[in-house]
Amino acid sequence: MKKSLLALIVIAPLTLGLTGCVIAVGGEDGHSISGDFEDREYKNRKKIAGIQLNTAFADVSREMGVADFTETYLKDGKTVNVVYYRTHRLHKDGLTTKDECTKLVFVNNSLTAIEQAG
Predict the structure, then answer these.
(1) Is the pLDDT of residue 26 over 50?
(2) How many domains, the chain?
(3) Nearest to 85 by CA among 26, 45, 33
(4) Mean pLDDT along residues 49-70
(5) What are phi and psi of 81, to 5 degrees?
(6) Rounded to an integer, what is the distance from CA 3 to the centroid of its chain?
(7) Residue 28 sits in which domain range?
(8) Strand partners, 27
(9) I want to staple 113 with a disulfide (CB 3.0 to 4.6 A). Which of 5, 54, 75, 105 is the partner?
């Protein structure tokens, strides 16, 4: 009985000191979702700022990577490729929408326009 009481007296204060709440905000690498988006948005804006009109679609794709959205269609006998890259945040929902992207328009594989939505 004395050993049980002694153990309780020693262990109880130690366990009370170990209780508490832990709130994990970021991922495994310490980044939060919004931080990841902000990093990607900044990098995309920086890359897009360095792209010149008339650059080939393949060169832009190689520099930018996979687009968030892609559209391809024919207009007046010409192939039009429209790619969207996330560059800014409008909604705090963690999703990427076209109005949060910059649109790059290619006609016959040549960049003809860069348009920021939103």
Answers:
(1) no
(2) 1
(3) 45
(4) 97
(5) -115, 130
(6) 58
(7) 2-116
(8) none
(9) 105
Strand-pair category, 69-75 with 101-107: unpaired
Half-sphere exposure of 57 (CA within 13 A, CB side): 15
- Closest Cα to residue 101, out of 73, 56, 63, 64? 64
List, for residues 62-88, the tens digit of each pLDDT value: 999 999 999 999 999 999 999 999 998
Name the 3-class secondary structure at 84.
strand
CA dihedral (24, 26, 27, 29) in degrees, to 10, reads -120
Residue 9, token pair as written in the block: 């007296």
33: domain CATH number is 3.30.1450.10
Cβ-in-10-Å burial (0-12, 13-18, 19+) of 64 comes to: middle
In the block, residue with structure tokens 């080939």: 56
Across the chain, what does the average pLDDT equal?
82
